[in-house]
Amino acid sequence: MNAILISIGDELVLGQTIDTNSAWLSQQLAAIGCGVLEHITIPDDQSQIERAITNSISRCQIILITGGLGPTADDLTRQAIAAALGTPLVLNEPWLDNMKQFFARRKRPMPQTNSIQAMIPTGARIIWNNHGTAAGIDADPVSPLFPSPSASFGTMGEGEGLSSVPQKPATSQPCRLFAVPGVPKEMKGMFADYILPILRPLSSGAVILSSTLHTYSLGESAIAELLGDLMDRTRNPSVGTTVSGGVVSLRINARFSTLQEAQRQLAATVEQCRHRLRSLIYGQDDQTLASVVADLLLHPPTHFGPGPLIVATAESCTGGLLAKMLTDIPGSSAYFHQGWITYSNDAKIKMLSVDSQLLAAHGAVSEPVVAAMAQSARQNAAAHFALAISGIAGPTGGTPEKPVGTVCIALASGTSTEASTHLFPGDREVIRDRSAKTALNLLRLQLLKLH
Ligand code: AMP
Ligand code: MG
To answer: Is residue 348 scored above 60 in pLDDT?
Structure first.
């Protein structure tokens, strides 16, 4: 079974509203083994909507439209469906009555414009909406390939990979079209109550299961090189990469005919990725660098004795961002008690006892100074570890020796202090973000060594 999703709205193509409907629907369809061939996003333009429907009819088994079913002049989906189907709109009395009651309950007269919402293409069925006045439409379009569609359509075939874009086989049944309002709450309710119960029995039992592994510190191409043949485009489960916020994520999708097989194959590929990337992978699915670090601090190896490990922070250019990331995690007070933001040299001297001669000799952005900051923070907070960051976030303040993006990071532990210098590309926000994440990652790698 495969589907094409059509999202309609000027606000979507203008970039004012993000098309979250298609993302949600794709996930729901994947769960019943329905491959999504395309997401089409178009404005509130009748001829464009009509063309998108006509073009899709012969290429998929399910067309799922969201948006454009409101009562105003820019809501043109129902007219476009009627035109694409070649049938006039007719009044649906039950929905008109329902709308009248809807307004009566609110003690308001029903505006005349709302009556258009009770019009549906001849031969189509109403999809009931329990949360608004826009009913949905369930129709059987006549494909040019299939001039006389039957009302039913049987079990769909499987084997449509995510990466391949199969055309509808000439022997398959006509496609079915569902249109629901764009309001996410209404769309979700109508999909769950009406559309899903229709589609689920048509599913061949095939499922698409997904998992995401997150890495930090190497770029996308370096990760791809390490993954090698695992990223082969014909592979199932497939492995693809995406980058966001310096995090390179592996997206693994397994499409198989049974849930058990999909689970088994997905787990096997996750294991193969882990084997190739080892500690480069910091987490899976919803895990963040901070949540993984928190977990490692909260659950130290038994030879450390009971209770969590404590980390302290001393930040200059990140202005508390590292402490924020650490304390974003509920229960963080168990492993984080205090941190320092020492922005000026004076603050570094007064609050962290950094030697003024050290500052004069090396500058605030230097490995000896961050090492001193980390050691003092660790001692003052009676912590197991301390992270310190000092750098040039820009856009001003760079020099030929220390350009914007130069950041020194230190990690002090009971046995040693390690300081390193990094050069992060990007603007002020990116440099600060990467500085804090790199510090978290250094702590994570250190904590892994304890296990
Ligand atoms: P409509 O059903 O076209 O009247 O859409 C009503 C509202 O739903 C719009 O104003 C948007 O805020 C929201 N909306 C419409 N389409 C989408 C979409 N694809 N994703 C997320 N929100 C949407
Ligand atoms: Mg709209």
So the answer is: yes
Please say whether the beta carbons of 337 and 312 come within 8 A.
yes
Categorize the per-residue pLDDT at 11 as very low, low, confident or very high, splitting at 50, 70 and 90. very high
Quick check: 308 pLDDT over 60? yes
* pLDDT score of 295: 97
Residue written as token pair 């909507």: 49
Which residue from 353, 314, 343, 334 is spatially nearest to 439, judged by alpha carbons? 314
| Ligand 1 pocket test, candidate residues 10, 11, 65, most atoms within 8 A of CB | 11
The stretch 347-368 carries a mean pLDDT of 98
Nearest ligand 1 atom, CA 70: 4
Q: How far apart are CA 321 and CA 433, in angstroms?
A: 8
What pairing do the DSSP bridges indicate for beta strands 2-8 and 62-66?
Answer: parallel
Q: How far apart are CA 447 and CA 279, in angstroms?
A: 11
Tell me the average pLDDT of the chain. Answer: 92
Q: Could you tell me how far CA 114 lies from the centroid of its own chain?
A: 36
Q: pLDDT for 205-226, tens place per residue?
A: 788 899 999 999 999 999 999 9
Mean pLDDT of 56-80: 96
Q: Tokens representing 44?
A: 């509130």
Compute the Cα dihedral for 304, 308, 314, 315 and give only its sign. Answer: positive
For the chain, the maximum distance between any two Cα atoms, rounded to a whole number of angstroms, is 89
Rounded to 10 degrees, the C-alpha dihedral 160/162/168/174 comes to 90
In this predicted structure, the answer to whether residue 155 has a pLDDT above a threshold of 50 is no
Identify the residues whose C-beta falls under 6 Å from ligand 1.
7, 9, 11-12, 17, 19-21, 66-70, 75, 181-184
Residue nearest to atom 16 of ligand 1 (CA): 182
Nearest residue (by CA) to ligand 1, atom 8, is 183
Instruction: Find where tokens 């916020």 sit.
Output: 245
pTM of the predicted structure, to 2 decimals: 0.78
Task: For strands 62-66 and 35-42, give the pairing.
Answer: unpaired
